[in-house]
Amino acid sequence: MLTHSISALSLSAHDITKALEDVHFMAKSVKAKSIDTKDYIEMQDELSAGKKISTLSQDELDLWELSLESLLDTLESSHKQANEIRVKLEGISRETVILKATIEGMVATAQVNVDARIKQLQKEHDDAKANADRHRGCFKDVGEGLKTIFSLGISCAMLDQTLKKAEAAARDIDRTKANFENNVAPLVGKLAGLNGVAEDLLREAMTKTTMVREFEETLQLMVSAFKQKQGRTLAIRMEKMRAKMLADLAELITVCDKTIVGTASREGDFRSILVEADKKMRETSL
Questions:
Q1: What is the domain-level CATH number for residue 83?
Q2: Residue 122's domain spans which residues?
Q3: Of 103, 204, 221, 284, which is most buried with the most CB atoms under 10 A?
């Protein structure tokens, strides 16, 4: 279960990284196409020389239709990809919630087991020490003193052997307890650390899902807005319509910039933690 959870978290981290990388380059592509279209409209704005409705040749109108079609192709394909990525990130969020609950359960169980084992070792150590104390000293009381005298020291030798065995047992238990406390018990903390990784992944997935959804919705709005311009020469000829398109493209570029920054590469943010956790868990199993 532990190995599965670590693998699942690692896979989710990889999937989030890949999804953000795809959105990052997608936003750059949309921004580049938006800038090209904006530059073309601004050029037509300058050529109109302030006329409310300018006159364009058929070649110029054909070029406008090609530019608009190219923009729409980019917007529509990007909207489709953004939708797929957003759905995937939502799935990762749901899976991470389940994983987080599983890890919390494992942490609680491991802590109970560790506490019980330490308590058991402490009792065994205390019992062994008490046993050693019971066999310490040939003249510790009248009875042992008489046994030593009448057996000519034989009972003392036997008592000494028993004492050595009891002390050795106490030392062995003490070493076992110390090893468990120093090497095994801390792994519960490492396991609990996976909870933090799960929380980070969940926060990352939910935050980025929101950002991708905003990007997706903006793309959808722009697809609708520019589709209305297809086949309408007034869209490029009329000053007010050009101004509206320029405003829309400026908004789209702003959203692209926000998305580009928000999806900047964060290689290794989670992977190094997961690799270390996996290493520690393999060193000593609970």
A1: 1.10.287
A2: 2-283
A3: 103
